Amino acid sequence: MSRIPIGVIGVGALGRHHARHLATSTVARLVGVHDLDAARGREVADSVGTRFYPDLDALLQDTEAVTIAVPTPVHAAVGLRALERGQAVLMEKPLAVTIAEADALIAAAARRGVPLVVGHVERFNRAVRAAAPYLGDIKYFESTRLAPFQARGSDVAVILDLMIHDLDLVLHLTRGDPVSDVRASGVAVLSPHIDVANARVEFQGGGVANITASRVARDRVRKLRLFQPNGYLSLDLAAGTGLFMRLRGDRPAGPASNLEDVAEVVPLEAPEGDALGAELESFVRFLRGDPNPVVTALEGRAALALALQVSEAVAGR
């Protein structure tokens, strides 16, 4: 089977990694890259042995699919341009900035009959994949995502920039349980937008998620803890590692003096591989007939809708 001709639109901090992975793909053929910064575009193209297209329409004429990693405020405009040209699209998260933009993208994909998926890369995190066999009825989520400040991404609030990763994971892990309440607070520190935020999301089934995101930290932290009736999982998303503290079936009755008395530690066997590489490979295999897309456009819309609820809760304080 021939490799799918694919292009990358936007080769900044993230898009250049799209190009690097796709250049070595065995199921896709990287046709070229496009970026408004011609010098950067040529530099990335040369580094991976592909062509730089100064004209986006020329790239879209030579490809069947594109990945889009442009600044968030122009996701919708660039995505619509590609979809209207009949391209399958993987849009980096978030799908768009507003629900109206997301719906326009979804409608364009349906009208043209082409796939539209969203790049929520943490779905492919090694620790998240390793945790899958142990997941049960999660009742409490504790998520912490911290990063040093950088200009990239600061054109939107930290909720759309960073927290949306965890909002998508929580929605995915609650398996469609409707949100019943959202409370949040946040503050702008180094940009005109919210740079630090905390959200408490409650679900109709009784689950609660406490999510903190900051882009004004000294160190990078990406941790997720999941509590369920038979134990809890602790995941280090940055390291791709984790463990499951599983309650023993033969634990003694009454209060325990420490956790080790009632639980066994199960290290998670995290599969090898890069999350972004796995995401891109999954996208191409989906185009070739794999029934499981990366993250559907509707799932991307749901994550965006929840992020906007959090933003509204912050603004309402």
Overview of this protein structure:
The protein is of the alpha/beta class and 317 residues long. Helices cover 33% and strands 27% of the residues. It is built from nine helices and 14 strands. It has helices spanning 15-23, 38-48, 56-62, 75-84, 99-112, 126-131, 158-173, 275-287, 297-315, and strands at residues 4-9, 28-34, 51-52, 65-68, 88-92, 116-119, 140-146, 179-187, 196-203, 208-214, 221-228, 231-236, 241-247, 263-267. It has an eight-stranded mixed sheet. A six-stranded parallel sheet has the order 3-2-1-4-5-6, sandwiched between helices.
- Across the major sheet, the strand order is 8-9-10-7-11-12-13-14
Continuous helix count: 9
The CATH topology annotation of the largest domain reads as: Dihydrodipicolinate Reductase, domain 2
Question: What proportion of the residues form beta strands (DSSP E)?
Answer: 25-35%
- Helix content class: 25-40%
**Rg estimate, integer Å:** 21 Å
Number of DSSP strands? 14
What kind of assembly state do the chains in view correspond to?
A: single chain
**Can you identify the CATH superfamily of the largest domain?**
Dihydrodipicolinate Reductase, domain 2
CATH architecture of the largest domain: 2-Layer Sandwich
Through-space gap between termini: 56 Å
Mean pLDDT: 94
Structurally, the number of domains stands at 2
The biggest beta sheet is recorded as: 8 strands, mixed
